[in-house]
């Protein structure tokens, strides 16, 4: 069995007896990996009969995620202290630690003045806004880390024009222009820390590299953007925002080179999408298979684990120890050899809209351990 510590960047081969496993490990245990629980800085919860914190907790555990950062586009949005406290109450006491962002366009003006723990920053994600809204927010909000869904919402289109897909009216330059707008405008009003979500084009990467001379900028890659190309899109579950682009290989190379800082999921659950692209909402439900997508695409488990553990915590300026996680009492076990076909009908998530349905992936979570107790093992929840 392998043990990988992403904090110390050490890989060890150890005897199975050091950990009290629920049952005997399979014969190919040399390809089993014990490591830290994963961290996702980009997750959506729905409530109102949709994905709630109970189903999201189970889905997160099944995907190996012990820390999950919620975006503000709920109904109502997380835009004031009352709504935030409601979410904190619903997510309290779970095996998964839920952090929260606040709407950049809401009533709160100072995150540090909030009497709540576990606030990771401002966010524009999932919220439609124009330049005037952005300016007003920068004028009225106290600087803190800003998670930005960089998009010019005034320019419509579900897919990039070059993709030749239905309603392919979005300019390829849309995202890069929006990134430049957010960062340069923010700098003018004292904001210095920006996290650019789900980067989808090579042009955006070039823009980020230029702006890093002026501000502290991190960015993320999501499962659908590292796996799919426009010619692979054939189902409404592939309707993603930002759209799938031709630059998949550029994005993956940027992740390997460290130009993209972290991996995230952008888990966006919907019960079932309408059968047409036009009517379907954006998003894919896949927090349960995101790790497997990344292991399949990149094949280097150290790279994947680094970008799903320590790197995202560095973005928000915190450590596993700060959050109360102690390895190996808090850990996950992964079978690096396991292959399976994705079937969203078996998901714990209420979201069945998975872009990866039918895909053959390699690498699968076997167990999830929290505070010294196995919560999940080989398809079964032992606690919760």
What are the salient characteristics of this protein?
384 residues; alpha/beta; TIM Barrel; 7-stranded mixed beta sheet; 10 helices; 15 strands; 24% helix; dihydroorotase activity; EC 3.5.2.3; DHOase/Allantoinase_Hydrolase
How would you characterize this protein structure?
The chain is α/β, with parallel strands linked by helices and 384 residues long. It has a single domain, classed as TIM Barrel (Alpha-Beta Barrel). The protein is built from 10 helices and 15 strands. The protein has an 8-stranded parallel beta sheet. The protein has a 7-stranded mixed beta sheet with strand order 2-1-3-12-13-14-15, covered by helices on one side. It is globular.
Short description:
It contains ten helices and 15 strands. By secondary structure, it is an alpha/beta fold. The two termini are 27 Å apart.
> What class would the helix/strand composition place it in?
alpha/beta
What's the domain count? 1
The ordered H/E elements are: EEEEHEHEEHEHEHEHHEHHHEEEE
Percentage of β-strand residues: 15-25%
- Cα-based radius of gyration, to the nearest Å: 20 Å
CATH class: Alpha Beta
Overall body shape: globular
Number of strands: 15
Uncertain parts: none
- Helix fraction by DSSP (H/I, runs of at least 4): 10-25%
> Which architecture per CATH?
Alpha-Beta Barrel
Head-to-tail CA distance between termini = 27 Å
Keywords: Hydrolase
EC number: 3.5.2.3
GO molecular function: allantoinase activity; dihydroorotase activity
InterPro entries: DHOase/Allantoinase_Hydrolase (IPR050138), Metal-dep_hydrolase_composite (IPR011059), Metal_Hydrolase (IPR032466)
């Amino acid at each position: 069995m392998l043990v990988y510590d992403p904090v110390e960047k050490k890989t060890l081969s150890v005897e199975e007896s050091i950990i009290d496993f629920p049952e005997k490990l399979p014969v190919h245990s040399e390809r089993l990996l014990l490591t830290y629980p994963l961290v996702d800085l980009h997750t959506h919860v729905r409530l109102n009969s949709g994905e709630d914190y109970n189903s999201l907790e189970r889905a997160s555990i099944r995907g190996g995620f012990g820390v999950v950062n919620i975006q503000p586009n709920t109904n109502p949005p997380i835009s004031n202290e009352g709504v935030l406290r409601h979410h904190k109450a619903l997510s309290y006491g779970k095996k998964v630690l839920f952090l929260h962002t606040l709407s950049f366009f809401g009533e709160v003006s100072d995150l540090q003045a909030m009497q709540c723990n576990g606030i990771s920053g401002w966010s524009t994600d999932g919220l439609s806004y124009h330049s005037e809204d952005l300016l007003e927010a920068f004028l009225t909000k106290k600087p803190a880390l800003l998670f930005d869904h960089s998009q010019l919402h005034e320019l419509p289109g579900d897919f990039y024009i070059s993709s030749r897909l239905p309603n392919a009216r979005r300019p390829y330059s849309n995202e890069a222009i929006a990134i430049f707008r957010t960062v340069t405008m923010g700098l003018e009003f004292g904001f210095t820390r920006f996290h650019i979500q789900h980067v989808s084009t090579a042009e955006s990467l070039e823009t980020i590299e230029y702006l890093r001379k002026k501000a502290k900028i991190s960015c993320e890659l999501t499962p659908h953007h590292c796996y799919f190309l426009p010619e692979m899109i054939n189902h409404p579950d592939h309707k993603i925002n930002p759209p799938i682009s031709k630059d998949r290989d550029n994005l993956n190379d940027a992740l390997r080179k460290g130009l993209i800082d972290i991996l995230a999921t952008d888990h966006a659950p919907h019960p079932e999408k309408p059968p047409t692209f036009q009517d379907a909402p954006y998003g894919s439900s896949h927090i349960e298979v995101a790790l497997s997508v990344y292991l399949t695409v990149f094949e280097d488990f150290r790279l994947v684990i680094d970008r799903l553990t320590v790197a995202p915590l560095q973005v928000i300026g915190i450590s596993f120890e700060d959050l109360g996680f102690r390895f190996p009492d808090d850990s996950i076990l992964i079978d690096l050899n396991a292959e399976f076909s994705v079937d969203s009908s078996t998901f714990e998530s209420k979201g069945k809209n998975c872009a990866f349905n039918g895909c053959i992936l390699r690498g699968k979570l076997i167990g999830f351990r929290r505070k010294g107790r196995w919560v999940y093992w080989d398809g079964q929840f032992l606690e919760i």
